Amino acid sequence: MLLSPATGGNLTLTQRDRRFGYLLTAPGLAVLLVVITFPLFFTVFTSFYDYTLLTPNHDTFIGGENYQEAADEEYLPGSLWVTVKFVLASVVIEFIIGFIVALSLNATDRFKTVYYLILLAPLLINPVVVGLLWRMLLHSELGIVNYAIGLVGIRPVSWLGDPTIAFWTVVLTDIWHQVSFMAILLLAGLAALPREPYEAARMDGASPLRCFFYITLPLMRPVIFVALLLRMIFAIKTFDIVFIMTKGGPGTATDIISYFIYRAAFFGLDIGRASAMAVGLLIIIIVLTALLYRYMRSLN
Amino acid sequence: MRLFIAVAAATMLFASVAKAETIRILMETVPDTRYIQELLPEFEEASGIDVEIEAISYIDMHSKLVPQLISPQGSYDLIVVDFYWVGEFTKAGWLMPLDDLAARDGVNVDVYVPKLMDLVGRVDGVLYMLPFYNYSMALIYRQDLIDDPAEQAAFKEKYGIDLRVPETWDEYWKQVEFFTRDNDGDGERDFYGTVIQGQRGDCISMQWANYLYSQGGRYHDENWEPLLDSPEAIRAMEYYRDAVVNYSPAGSEAYCFDEAFNVMAQGRAYSFVTFNILYAGFEDPESSTVAGKVGITPNPGGGLNGGWGWAIPNSSPNVEAAWTFIKWAENPETAKRRALLGGAPTQAPIFTDPDVMAARPYYPVLGEILAGTQDFPVFTYTTEFVEEVGRELNLAAIGEKPIPEAMADAQAELRALLIKDGKIAE
Amino acid sequence: MVAQLLPHAVLIAFSAAILLPLLWLLRVALTDKTTAYKIPPEWGQASIGNFVEIFTGYPFFNYFINSVTVAIGATVIALPLAAAIAYAFARYNTGGMSLRLVVLSSQMLPPVILVLPLFTLFLKAQLLNSLVGLIAAHLTISLPFLAWLLVAFFDRNIALVEEAARVDGATRLQTFLRITLPVAAPGILAAGLLSFILSWNEFLFALILSGPQTNTLPVGLSSFQTHRGVDISLLSAATICAILPVFVLLPFMRRYLIKGLSLGALK
User: Fold this and answer.
1) Residues of each domain in chain C carrying CATH 1.10.3720.10
2) Which long-range contacts (CB under 8 A, 24 or more apart) does A259-265 make?
3) Which residue, B125, B231, C65, C139, shows the most beta carbons closer than 10 Å to its own?
């Protein structure tokens, strides 16, 4: 029916392709329209109004005032900087470890299921519990980690009390929790690679390293791109681990943007201002995504 | 898979079909919530009202409540409100005044401790809540160490005064210094005079309040003029920083009350300024190695008052049934039985009730602690204030900001919020 | 030889880093809070009391079923819709880059901002406190996520096979269903698994849009943070009980997850 010759007969091939594309996307977009468009427009709309939880209505249009207020926030630039550092550190390290693990798994047959199960385990623990678990393990006085490193003569570390260390503690906790996300994705990419190029390369006597750089990496590029992009977007939204482990402290060392916006909305009661910050963030991420996407395409 | 769907369908059905009279209550995971749940079958049988209690963590309560409250019709008939939110909730007009209901049914609200009525009862003369639960802050200390003759002698020799339950801050601080020790002789302290709960946000805000009161400091004067850069406030922060650096575990600037509790519960600290309800945890061998060895006393100079109150939101679908429930939960008999189970009383007679005292001998002290407490600033932006001041205090506690500068910034934050709330003029 | 051992060495080290904290979690689940925090560690008497209590004293089973229902529901609904969108994006570049960005844009907003309008919407649609509502809310996460992810698995390698099929007279739809989907199966299943996990761990929507009957595991587990401290032993026991059943299902999926069908098989 979709492709009945009667209606399709006088269309060109490209037109038919295009129509088929829209037909495929229609059901999904219809669902998205319902569940996403409204919140999205609500947020953009609200960011121009004096909408607080005390007066939750769109009676007072205030133009760009919320944006001005957000820009004047003394601690906002610091929070953005923490977010940038956090996203870069966690995504890059997760990518490197995740890729190594995925390559190893792809090259293994024995115990593969066992490894895969272990790999999956942290992902099944929700972030609130991950935060509480690591808070217990890293307790400066009663944590098993400080006890264990003490056995080999290392002095106890103030994992969450020292600003610099606390930042890396949060990053490492996130990596422990999320690195498998990257590994699973990359492994699926590796599993779907065609075998032929490798067979040809082996006949030519290419080294495994050459195979990796000249066959695996180029073929994996779409998967790598989307894995990095999606992990980046999720990392920007990281909330629970910080909320449970540090509340943005010590000082402002782990005060990432999602918690900053959360405070503006639910503690500051100012949904308008929080929406303005969220829209600002949205624009930044869209631009970043578009640039990454362009760059990705230019490689092909 | 089919099983999942069947169970899911059953669950959804159950959720959407309300019984003849069912009330839904949103509560916090405090011990008293469990006691209420234990006694609940009696109420359900007597009243014919089914009660569904949803107990969630205190850190999630506010986010869960607010969307419910701003809607014309919420899912909850009855809620409990932390004192943090009293200003905000009443200003927004989310809570229903209870004066008429109380007068109609002759509910005597004079039985409540006045401090709690002021905190989580009346606002500007209107009854919005009935005090449900009290978590005022106090000093929890190691009674066995104070009673130890050897310690007494050594203390007397060092300071020239007796070692006893501290009554003044100066006395307490000497004890904090005295008991901080390096027992295994490795050059680092391993027994602590006090434990700090210094994590940014409400953990440090709540504990530091006690330090402020101990120095005779206040958050604001009678006209809401903020006083956070006063000499008393600065001195309070100096004590706090002193504790972080010298008398509390390294890393305690990131503890919240659970981490700090465990340090003391593992027998590694002499004292802990914290919520009085944690005392029961220290007395429980399942969570503490020092059961039977701890005492509780008012924080020298006064502790922070804290509590939760029952409130009926204006979005409540069933006001009458909710009110029937409050009347049951707060009638003196139920209140007493809750206290016997270990609950935190809010009605004055219960603290000194003979049966309660027989079961829980320290309850009169809890009454004393409550009587000596002071209030946190309660206004529309209390929650935001807790966060803002919590940031400045934490910056000072970790040494990233000089104390006078941090207190000046805290002062500016409080002033700005009070102006926003219309409490003071610009 | 080295080439064979190296992956195992990597995987054993990695597994140890993941397992050690989890073994500690198991230990805590088998003891009380006092013993859990003893340093140097004391093992004490292992007891399954905490496991019993989470089933008898808490609606743990209910949380679990709710979580599984919502996570599977959202994934099963999102997967075909997203696969169709992704295929159109990958093969026909439908809507160009702007449509792709629109699809993903809601994912770029912090959930705390999205939850208020969703609450308002659900209140009007009477979807609050229902699993259907929660599934719909989780679609806002899984659908864009899957749509973007799957594009990567409908790449050029498959396009070549597709062309061959088209030459043989298959329609576009037939090609998509019979050629592309099977070849991309490992990617689709991995994506489905990750989408399940996103939904499984989602907290804020579940907190605000659900009620006592429809609370999911993250909300239920969070309530072990009480005003008297964290019930760490119960929390650990509950966490372990939440992970284990999923492991039972996994070996069945394994074949598809890590092997998939190679292109060669289809030629």
Assistant:
1) 59-266
2) A260/A75, A260/A76, A260/A79, A261/C110, A261/C112, A261/C113, A262/C110, A262/C112, A263/B384, A263/B387, A265/C112, A265/C113, A265/C116
3) C139
* Chain B residues closer than 8 Å to C116 by CB: 67
A285 burial level (CB within 10 Å; 0-12, 13-18, 19+): buried
Tell me whether the omega of the peptide bond preceding residue A250 falls within 30 degrees of 0, making it cis.
yes
The gap between the terminal CA atoms of chain C, to the nearest Å, is 33
d(C-alpha A27, C-alpha A12), whole Å = 24
The pair of structure tokens assigned to C217 is 């595991």
Q: Please, what's the b/e burial string for B347-366 (b: 16 or more CB within 10 A of its CB; e: otherwise)?
A: bbebbebeebeeebebbebb
Shortest distance, CA A118 to any CA of chain B (angstroms): 24
User: Least CB-CB distance to B277: which of C62, C115, C227?
Assistant: C227
Among A residues 211-270, those touching chain C with beta carbons less than 8 Å apart: 219, 222-223, 225-227, 229-230, 233, 236-237, 239-240, 257-258, 261-262, 265-266
The pLDDT value recorded for residue A10 is: 63
Token digits of residue C154? 């409908």
C253 touches chain B (CB under 8 A): no
**Cβ contact, residue pair B75, C211, below 8 Å:** yes
Q: Does the pLDDT value for residue B100 go beyond 60? A: yes
Residue C262 reports pLDDT greater than 50: no
Structural domains of chain B ordered from first start: 18-128+307-371 (3.40.190.10), 137-297 (3.40.190.10)
User: What digits encode the pLDDT tens for the residues C153-191?
Assistant: 887 667 777 777 777 888 888 888 887 888 788 788 889
Q: CA-based Rg of chain A, rounded to a whole angstrom?
A: 24
Give me A84's structure tokens: 């940038």
Nearest to A53 among B92, B391, B400 (CB): B92
The reply to whether residue C120 touches residue B53, judged by beta carbons under 8 angstroms, is no
Cis amide leading into C40 (omega within 30)? yes
pLDDT recorded at residue C157: 64
pLDDT tens by residue, B355-394: 999 999 999 999 999 999 999 999 999 999 999 999 999 9
Q: What average pLDDT does the segment A140-158 reach? A: 93
Other CB atoms within 10 Å distance of the CB of residue B128:
23
Phi, psi at A17, each rounded to 5°: -60, -45
Radius of gyration of chain B from Cα atoms? 23
Cross-chain residue pair B275–C68, CB shorter than 8 Å: no
Confidence (pLDDT) at C256: 60
Contact B266 C38 (CB under 8 A): yes
- Residue ranges and CATH numbers for the domains of chain A are 1-37 (no CATH), 76-254 (1.10.3720.10)
C-beta separation of B31 from C228 below 8 A: yes
* Phi and psi torsions of B82, nearest 5°: -75, 150
Taking CA–CA distances from C208, the nearest residue in chain B reads: B64
Chain A interface disruption, residue of B59, B388, B394, B409, most A CBs within 10 A = B394
Query: Which residues on C lie below 8 Å from B75 (Cβ)?
Result: 128-129, 211
> Would you identify the CATH topology of the domain C59-266?
MetI-like fold (1.10.3720)
- Using a CB–CB cutoff of 8 Å, tell me whether C61 touches chain B: no
State both tokens at A22.
């829209």
> Could you tell me if C112 lies within 8 Å of chain A, comparing CB atoms?
yes
Residues of chain A positioned with their CB less than 8 A from the CB of C107 = 233, 237
CA angle B401, B220, B131 (to 5 degrees): 110
Compute the distance between CA of residue B11 and CA of residue B33 in angstroms, rounded to an integer: 24
CA pair distance B164, B160, nearest whole angstrom: 13
